[in-house]
Amino acid sequence: MELLDEMQALTYGNLYVSVEATAKLKAIIAVHDTRLGPALGGCRFAAYPDQNSAIRDAMRLARGMTFKAALARLPHGGGKSVILLPDGEFDREQLFKAFGRMINRLSGQYYSAEDSGTTTADMLAIRSETPYVTGIDSQHGGSGDPSPFTALGVRRGIEACMRFINGSDSLEGIRVAIQGVGAVGYHLAKELHALGANLVVADTNKERCHKVVEEFGASMLGVDEITKTACDVFSPCALGGAINDLSVEQIKCKVVAGAANNQLATADQGNQLKRRGILYAPDYAINAGGLINVAQELKTYDEGIVRERTMKIYDTIWEILERAKKEDRSSDEIADRMAQARLEEVHS
């Protein structure tokens, strides 16, 4: 599909690109929808096979942020940014300062935050050039790393799923396979271990795996094995596309519930999971805790409010699952409908 046609299909929106040769910046900001308020979404810093892949990733991620903010009832639209990892050596601080200048030119249409490949230090570099950034560390007036709240929300979503299939939201003794134990995956493992879950983990970074094994008694599998292991919950916490045409037939679980964005490679995977009798907690519904946290930074930050709102992800997942069962539809379709209804409700 041609790029402009794809933008139309995803109901865009605006797409911004910027190049600053001195800082080696090549960046994309996708602003999907601002009906609920200025777009808010993380900045991803990664290598891509080509520039079109980076643009399409930003576009899909930003659409997910629109729906995430809508379901979480936040006064924000959906945006996402991608900075392409430069070849060779580069000055990281200068790169993110250049990106800050790009954000500033949008005059508040888009607020950035941490995402895969970025840190609180990167957000601080951005803030030296623009006020339109969140996820600053607490020593500089922000809330710090949002990963613990993302993990908390995913844990609450898993509890709702277990109650839906077992009649109890206890996690004692359930087996959870976590794909990716970076910032969010690590904190999710910590949450689940504290409630008695048995963990099996995989990550391309073996040091991360060993840390979870040592601290939480997890078992470790190779990245190609994690999707095939028998478990109660398969939890994708790495990059998108974990549920694809191959893995959707391989997974041996009752529930798919994880922190990654865009877990379904295509829309049809939601129906494939439904046909197999596997519950799916839609990604942008279950992983909203981090967004809830950084959105609170734009008000008077109160960790208690963030925790209270993140805990309610349980109720959101429960409502999605109940409606999906009642209407005999896939859970991702129901989540999309609920988000669209919220967008229309605000502007009716």
Cα-atom radius of gyration: 19 Å
Sheet-strand content, in percent, reads 5-15%
Order of helices and strands: HEEEEHEHEHHEHEHEEHEHEHHHHH
Continuous helix count? 14
Largest beta-sheet details: 6 strands, mixed
SS-derived structural category? alpha/beta
Q: Give the low-pLDDT segments.
A: none
- Gross geometry: globular
The span between the termini is: 32 Å
Keywords:
348 residues; alpha/beta; 6-stranded mixed beta sheet; 6-stranded parallel beta sheet; 14 helices; 12 strands; 45% helix; globular
Structural write-up:
This protein is α/β, with parallel strands linked by helices and 348 residues long. It has 14 helices and twelve strands. The strands form two sheets. Strands 1, 2, 3, 4, 5 and 6 form a six-stranded mixed sheet that branches. Strand 7, helix 6 and strand 8 form a beta-alpha-beta unit. Helix 5 packs across helix 6, helix 6 packs parallel to helix 7 and helix 11 packs antiparallel against helix 12.
